[in-house]
Amino acid sequence: MESSKFTMILSMPLSGRVVNKIVSETNALKSMVYLDLGTRTVDMKSILGILSADCKVGMEITVVCLAHDKSIAENDCKVMELSLIHISEPTRRSWIS
């Protein structure tokens, strides 16, 4: 298995609707995707797994993508990073109105 990963500081907690969005986007990927918290690792395709991690604002997380092909793992990691950044931003609709 090949892997790719990125680390980020959360600007929002991983809870509620955010987790639903993350899981639906993760399920569309070819890689196995894990949230590495240092002390434990959870499957990002599992709502209960992410919720049990109790990820709060300011927490450092590492997302690891595993696939049989390095380019798939790297691409899926980029998609997840952009997805988490996008989900954490305030909606643009509130800026416009």
Protein model, in words:
There is one protein chain. This protein is α+β, with helices and mostly antiparallel strands and 97 residues long. The protein contains four helices and four strands. The protein has helices spanning 16-27, 47-53, 70-88, 92-96; strands spanning 2-9, 32-36, 41-43, 60-67. The protein has a four-stranded antiparallel sheet. Helix 1 runs antiparallel to helix 3. It is globular and about 30 Å long.
The protein's oligomeric status is: single chain
- What sort of overall outline do the alpha carbons produce when their principal axes are compared? globular
Strand content: 15-25%
Helix count equals 4
Mean pLDDT figure: 89
Low-confidence spans: pLDDT under 50, at least 5 residues? none
Report helical residue fraction.
Answer: 40-55%
**Between the first and last Cα atoms, what is the distance in angstroms?**
47 Å
Biggest sheet layout: 4 strands, antiparallel
Give the total of beta strands: 4
What are the secondary-structure elements, in order, as H or E? EHEEHEHH
- The radius of gyration computed from the alpha-carbon positions, rounded to a whole number of angstroms, is 13 Å
Spatially, the strands of the biggest sheet line up as 1-4-2-3
Instruction: Indicate the structural class.
Output: alpha+beta
